[in-house]
Amino acid sequence: MDPGRFFASSRVLIVAGKGGVGKTVSAATIASAASRSGRSVLLVEVAGRSASAPIFGVEPQGYEQVTAVDETEQDDPPRGRIVLQSITPDQALMEWLTTHGFKGIVTRMASSGILEVVATATPGIKDLLVLGRIKAFESEGSFDLIVVDAPAAGHALGFLRSPAGVRDAARTGTIHRQAVEVLDLISDPTRCQVVLVTIPEETPVNELIETSFAIEDEMGVRLGPVVVNSVLPTLAGLDADLVSLDVSDAERNALQTAVTFRAGRAALQDEQLTRLGAELPLDQFRLPQLFSTTIGPDELAVLTKALLAEIEALPEVES
Ligand SMILES: Nc1ncnc2c1ncn2[C@@H]1O[C@H](COP(=O)(O)OP(=O)(O)OP(=O)(O)O)[C@@H](O)[C@H]1O
Ligand SMILES: [Mg+2]
Hints:
The chain is α/β, with parallel strands linked by helices. 50% of the residues lie in helices and 14% in strands. It has one domain (3-233, 281-312): P-loop containing nucleotide triphosphate hydrolases (Rossmann fold, 3-Layer(aba) Sandwich), CATH 3.40.50.300. The chain has twelve helices and eight strands. It has an eight-stranded mixed sheet, sandwiched between helices. The longest helix has 31 residues, at 249-279.
């Protein structure tokens, strides 16, 4: 499929998955691939960290937007800009109150833990506020694509359940309306999809399968392709004949151990990839495991290229 077309299929992509599987790296890679396809991207972090700034090689700016990639016409196709934005529930609440005619409250209560008061009264409100802010970015339409680096899996479910919970708890009023608007966004596949990330190992794959059913069947939120991160590249020569190698016995034994270990890992990984494909009828985007201690702009470029190739390998869908 043409990557430009893929990234036009939905305005908001929520990247979710178990802790540590590579959500932040995958979200950055998706943003970067979309930018390469000429789309302007807002990459939103909700965990209150600025983990993606170093991936783009820029300084984190707290809650201020940071331009990670500038629009350029030189590239073919022209690159879209990437802006990083960190959101927390507290800041989303302040903004929401300010823009909904409660500026007075904000000034009076800014320092007195207003969020805790509101959050205790209405469970789920913190997550709803963050989603509400994302919805506001979507309606403003300043970006072609909004990529959300969501909280870790268990919390991601709560995050996506929050609007329905708040809608039912607050039967009328502004908060109710906000919940309904967010529900409209997340349950409309042309506006929002969830991209689940896993690594090719048994437990994370099991969790991904469970999470996917909860998200699609229970919440009615559309799942996009699954990202399988940290896939070991296939190594040619693993079946080479070590017996005829001109090396010492000790070296031969060491090589044999390494070969057996690597082949074993590759077999386990293939088993999980096959199982995931059999149990979950979603396209898979595989990202290679890179042998580098940190992921910076150079590694991001490698992952971006890999992702674009995976998107291009998807069949073209008729619409
Ligand atoms: N494809 C990859 N190759 C090599 N290292 C990777 C790859 N993907 C992620 N990493 C590394 O693995 C670690 C976890 O990645 P990342 O921070 O993206 O995970 P996460 O799911 O966002 O974690 P958290 O749940 O803590 O937010 C990081 O140190 C990252 O640099
Ligand atoms: Mg992360």
